[in-house]
Amino acid sequence: MAFFAAARQGRKDDAELGSGVWRRAHDRFRRGLDRYHQILEGVDDDAVYNELTELANELVQLLPRVRTVCVAAQSQSPSEGLDIPGALLQVHRALSRAGNALATTAEAAAMARLDGERWGIASAGLDNVRRRAGVVAEDVAEAERLLGATSN
């Protein structure tokens, strides 16, 4: 059953996102979320787990926004290859920064988990995760703003 759902989603993604840079930006963000959630699976400290889960919920709410930007960008400047359409270069750059920031957020979450396990203190690491998650949200908002500016 899950196989067919994945195939349907893949066809929908192909239709809406194409197979170029907008699809890659969206998929990279989704993989970053998956990585972050994988880190949650190994957290033993309840306080750390609860804080990281709250941040995970905030980050996952960004995925539909990233998808909206990528679908609109594909509609405005279709991409089927690796070339970034010049008119939306800054939008792609903001999405790339969001994906990078999400990857470093997952790394920071892993470090907070290790600090909590090793030293019994994770508050400094959690501050770092919060700060990095904020950067992800800022980058997504910037992509939205830039896309809106190009469509006017």
Q: In words, what does this structure look like?
A:
The protein has helices at residues 2-17, 21-40, 46-60, 63-76, 89-119, 123-151. 82% of the residues lie in helices and 0% in strands. It has a single domain (2-151), classed as Up-down Bundle (Four Helix Bundle (Hemerythrin (Met), subunit A)), CATH 1.20.120. The model has no long low-confidence stretch (mean pLDDT 88).
Tally of contiguous helical segments: 6
Distance from N terminus to C terminus (CA atoms, Å) equals 43 Å
Shape: elongated
CATH class: Mainly Alpha
- H and E order: HHHHHH
Uncertain residue segments: none
Q: In terms of quaternary structure, what is this?
A: single chain
Helix/strand-derived class? mainly alpha
Key words describing this protein structure:
Dehydrogenase; Four Helix Bundle (Hemerythrin (Met), subunit A); elongated; single chain; 6 helices; 152 residues; mainly alpha
Topology:
Blueprint: H1 2-17, H2 21-40, H3 46-60, H4 63-76, H5 89-119, H6 123-151
Helix pairs in contact: 2-3, 2-4, 2-5, 3-5, 3-6, 4-6, 5-6
Organism: Arthrobacter pigmenti
Protein name: Dehydrogenase
